[in-house]
Design goal:
115 residues; mainly beta; seven-stranded mixed β-sheet; four-stranded antiparallel β-sheet; 11 strands; 0% helix; globular
Length: 115
């Protein structure tokens, strides 16, 4: 059974950093595009960042230069390093795979940024 387990969220002040993790089982992230999404209260879920099997990455304009997606293929784990956090980054964050037509979602990890 495929499982994606998200962790690393928390409550921080604006300007702080957090690193989210997504541990995958029964799904080799090295062979697929994997992504981070987020959903704020009252808003639709939006894509934050993706990383493909060739190592290429893409980011939403709102997080470019502040967030970095990466993966450790040996640990089969996806990461999202979030720096210079802003209150508007407050949301539930989910890892997902594959990037298009997502089949698998993590359970989510809450990020709350206060001003």
């Amino acid at each position: 059974e495929v499982q994606l387990v998200d962790s690393g969220g928390g409550s921080v002040q604006a300007g702080a950093s957090l690193r989210l993790s997504c541990a995958a089982s029964e799904f080799p992230i090295s062979r697929s595009c994997t992504a981070w999404f987020r959903q704020a209260p009252g808003k639709e879920r939006e894509g934050v960042a993706t990383t493909d099997s060739d190592g290429s990455t893409s980011y939403a304009d709102s997080v470019k230069g502040r967030f970095t997606i990466s993966k450790d293929n040996a640990k089969n784990t996806l990461y999202l390093q979030m720096n210079s956090l802003k209150p508007e980054d407050t949301a539930m964050y989910y890892c997902a795979a594959p990037c298009s037509l997502v089949d698998y979602w993590g359970q989510g990890t809450q990020v709350t940024v206060s001003s």
